[in-house]
Each structure stands twice: as C-alpha cells, then as structure tokens.
C-alpha cells in the first residue's frame, strides 16, 4: 500500500478523511450561519450571544468528522439542532452514515427508533414554524391540512431518502464483501485442490516408476542371471568339454533373445497408448519351460502341478510367473547346488505357487551374482496389489521358501451365454 492510501486514525484511506473534512466544513458553515441567524434575528440577542451560537453550530456541524467511528453522534447532534431550523446538511449525512454503517438487521430497532424520532421532530418543528407565522392583515391563511401536508413532505424528504440510500449502499457493500470472501475461499480451495492433484500426480509418477522398475527387474534379473551362470560354465568347461560349452553358449544366446523380446514388449507398452496388452494363453503354462532353463543352467529343480487347471486373469498369471522366476533367480544367486522344488497348486480358494530350496551343501560351484535387494519387495508388492498373500523366509532345515497365494476371484469364469 502506498503512502497516499495509508490510513489515518479511524479512516481506512486518506481520501475518506478528506471527504469527511469537506462534509464537516460544509455542515459547520451552514450550522454556524443558522446559529448566528437564530440568535441575532429571531431572538434579537446581542452580538456576543450570536457569535457563541455560531460557534456552537460550527462545532455541531464538525461532528461529521467522527461519523465513521461513532455514527450515532452526528445523529444526536442533528436532533439537538433541528429545532433551530438549521443543520440540514448535518441531518442528511448523519442519517445516511447511520444506515450505511450499521449492520442490518442486527441494529434494526435502534436505527428505526432514531430515524422515527428525527422524522417526528422534523415534522413537528416544520409544522410549528408554519402555524406560528401570523397572516398579514387582509391576507387569507391556507387551510391547516395544507400546512400538515407540507410539513409531512418536508419531514419525509429530509429523513427517508438518506435512510433508504444508506440501507441500499450498506447492503450492497456487504454483498460485495461476502462475494469477495467467497472468491478468496474458492481460490484457496482451488489452490488446495491443485496441490492435492499435484501430489496425486507425483505419487502416480512414483508408482509408475516403481512398476516399470519392477517389470525391468523381473525381466532382466532372471535372464541375465542364467546368462552369467552359463558364461561361468562355459569358462570352466570350454577346454575339457567343448560340446557342452557349445550347448551352454547356445542356451546363453536363447536366453538373451528371450530377455530382449520381453524388454521390447515392455518398451512397446510404454510407447503405446494405455490400452491393455494381450498376454497370450497364460504364463502359468510357461512354467515348465522356465524350469527347464534353470535345469539347463545346472540347477537341480523339479516342478509339481496339482489340482484342476483353471485359467486366471493375465495379471494374476503374470504375477505368479514372476514370483517363480524371481525365486529361481534368488536360488541361482544364493543357493547354488541346492535342490529346488517349484510347486503350482490350483485350490478352491485360489492358485498357489511356491519355490522351496534345500540348504546349500556347497558341493556345487557357485557363481557370485550381484543383488539389488529389491526382488522380494517387488514380489510382495505385486501379490498384495491383487489382494493375495505373500510369504518368504527360511525353513527349519536351513532352506528357503517363497510362496504366494492369489485369490479365486481372479480366475477367468466361463461366459454363461456361450
């Protein structure tokens, strides 16, 4: 706020103070002339009394300086000066200020009472001034009802317009203020909604990054682990068993191609629209092939399938497949030479997959593989997102078990209309 708009005392702006000073000066001049005329001409008092009356009138008119701080003060002063038939400017401005500044209807009774008193007083003084004048000799005086009508019109003209105008302006100001408050509230609410939307977008981006990272980990970790295992085997046997080394190299190439194909699928989904991607006949049917790849890498692994085969949604089958894939990768990393069992069971309450490895005996030569430590976390997030249960931990005999159960509601039901 600039220096020109800075408030002064009870005025919010300096131009409001200048306006009140101008109105007070005008009212003071009118009241001073009225007081002087009343004392000198009507009551025929001396000059000293006339000057004193003018000073009192000027002070009464100057009461408009406090109209914004104490609106009732100018009204009371005008009620004192009205019997002297002066202070018209003071009366009009005081009634307007009272109506515009007092909250309606919380002070309705007080405003109506003061306005009624001013109206009655103005009517009585005007009517008395008309009736107190004696007619000139030979001049016929108007009827009394004429004086009453004129007095009523004068009283209404002096009190009703400023009161009604003040009420209208005050109501309009309060309406504008309430609209501004609502606008500020809506703006604050929109800012809050924008912040929440930004936070949701940030969380969505974080979740999407986590999902993509999980997909990349599931695709790359298993395939690359197999490739590293085969590469270590090739390095060890290339001199004494070239045929087996060639077979391992062939498996490495096949595993690499599979990893590239899965990476292309993921990158293709990222580049395409948000339409779901078809997953084929079901990834649980690919578990035997996954187990065979681990066998080819030197792992002693068996697959056991129990229960009546039932198709599940693409997301559920992919999650179960990824659990087995990640568990086998962990077995390659941490349990080299141990026997591994892959269990797939179709149960009434869902489908269960489990990968259990025995305690590593140390007989098998291990290839040290890097580990990011996010495999189990990613598997648990996948399963819990579908409403299933996930457990992973050591067995009593020193082995390790990874198990996931997906609910039966994810099963693909046959269409009854077909």
From TrEMBL:
<dbReference type="InterPro" id="IPR050482">
    <property type="entry name" value="Sensor_HK_TwoCompSys"/>
</dbReference>
<feature type="transmembrane region" description="Helical">
    <location>
        <begin position="72"/>
        <end position="99"/>
    </location>
</feature>
<dbReference type="InterPro" id="IPR036890">
    <property type="entry name" value="HATPase_C_sf"/>
</dbReference>
<keyword id="KW-0547">Nucleotide-binding</keyword>
<dbReference type="InterPro" id="IPR011712">
    <property type="entry name" value="Sig_transdc_His_kin_sub3_dim/P"/>
</dbReference>
<feature type="transmembrane region" description="Helical">
    <location>
        <begin position="17"/>
        <end position="39"/>
    </location>
</feature>
<feature type="transmembrane region" description="Helical">
    <location>
        <begin position="111"/>
        <end position="133"/>
    </location>
</feature>
<keyword id="KW-1133">Transmembrane helix</keyword>
<protein>
    <recommendedName>
        <fullName>histidine kinase</fullName>
        <ecNumber>2.7.13.3</ecNumber>
    </recommendedName>
</protein>
<dbReference type="Pfam" id="PF07730">
    <property type="entry name" value="HisKA_3"/>
</dbReference>
<keyword id="KW-0812">Transmembrane</keyword>
<keyword id="KW-0597">Phosphoprotein</keyword>
<dbReference type="GO" id="GO:0016301">
    <property type="term" value="F:kinase activity"/>
</dbReference>
<keyword id="KW-0418">Kinase</keyword>
<feature type="domain" description="Signal transduction histidine kinase subgroup 3 dimerisation and phosphoacceptor">
    <location>
        <begin position="208"/>
        <end position="273"/>
    </location>
</feature>
<keyword id="KW-0902">Two-component regulatory system</keyword>
<keyword id="KW-0472">Membrane</keyword>
<feature type="transmembrane region" description="Helical">
    <location>
        <begin position="46"/>
        <end position="66"/>
    </location>
</feature>
<feature type="transmembrane region" description="Helical">
    <location>
        <begin position="145"/>
        <end position="170"/>
    </location>
</feature>
<keyword id="KW-0808">Transferase</keyword>
<keyword id="KW-0067">ATP-binding</keyword>
């Amino acid at each position: 706020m600039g220096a020109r708009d800075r408030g002064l005392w009870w005025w919010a702006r300096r131009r409001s103070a200048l306006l009140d000073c101008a109105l007070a000066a005008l009212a003071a001049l009118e009241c001073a002339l009225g007081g002087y005329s009343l004392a000198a001409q009507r009551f025929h008092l001396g000059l000293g009394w006339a000057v004193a009356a003018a000073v009192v009138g000027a002070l009464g008119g100057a009461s408009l300086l406090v109209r914004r701080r104490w609106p009732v003060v100018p009204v009371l002063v005008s009620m004192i000066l009205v019997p002297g038939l002066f202070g018209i400017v003071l009366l009009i401005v005081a009634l307007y200020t009272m109506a515009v500044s007092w909250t309606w209807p919380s002070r309705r009774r007080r405003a109506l009472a003061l306005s009624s008193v001013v109206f009655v007083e103005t009517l009585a003084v005007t009517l008395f001034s008309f009736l107190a004048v004696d007619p000139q000799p030979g001049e016929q005086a108007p009827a009394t009802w004429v004086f009453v009508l004129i007095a009523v019109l004068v009283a209404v003209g002096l009190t009703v317009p400023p009161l009604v105008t003040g009420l209208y302006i005050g109501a309009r100001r309060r309406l504008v203020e309430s609209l501004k408050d609502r606008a500020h509230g809506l703006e604050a609410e929109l800012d809050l909604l924008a912040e929440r939307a930004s936070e949701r977008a940030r969380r969505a981006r974080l979740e999407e990054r986590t999902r993509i990272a999980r997909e990349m980990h599931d695709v790359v970790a298993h395939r690359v682990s197999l490739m590293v295992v085969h590469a270590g085997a090739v390095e060890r046997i290339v001199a004494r068993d070239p045929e087996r080394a060639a077979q391992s190299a062939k498996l490495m190439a096949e595993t690499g191609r599979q990893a590239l194909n899965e990476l292309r699928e993921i990158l293709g989904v990222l580049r395409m629209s948000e339409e779901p991607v078809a997953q084929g006949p079901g990834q649980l049917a690919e578990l035997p092939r996954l187990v065979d790849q681990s066998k080819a890498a030197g792992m002693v692994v068996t697959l056991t399938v129990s229960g009546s085969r039932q198709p599940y949604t693409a997301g559920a089958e992919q999650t179960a497949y990824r659990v087995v894939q990640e568990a086998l990768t962990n077995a390659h990393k941490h349990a080299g030479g141990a026997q591994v069992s892959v269990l797939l069971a179709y149960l009434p309450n869902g489908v269960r997959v489990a990968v259990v490895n025995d305690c590593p005996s140390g007989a098998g030569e291990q290839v040290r593989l890097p580990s990011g430590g996010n495999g189990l976390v990613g598997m648990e997030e996948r399963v819990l997102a579908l409403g299933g249960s996930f457990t992973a931990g050591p067995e009593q005999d020193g082995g390790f078990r990874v198990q996931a159960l997906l609910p039966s509601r994810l099963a693909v039901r046959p269409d009854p209309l077909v």
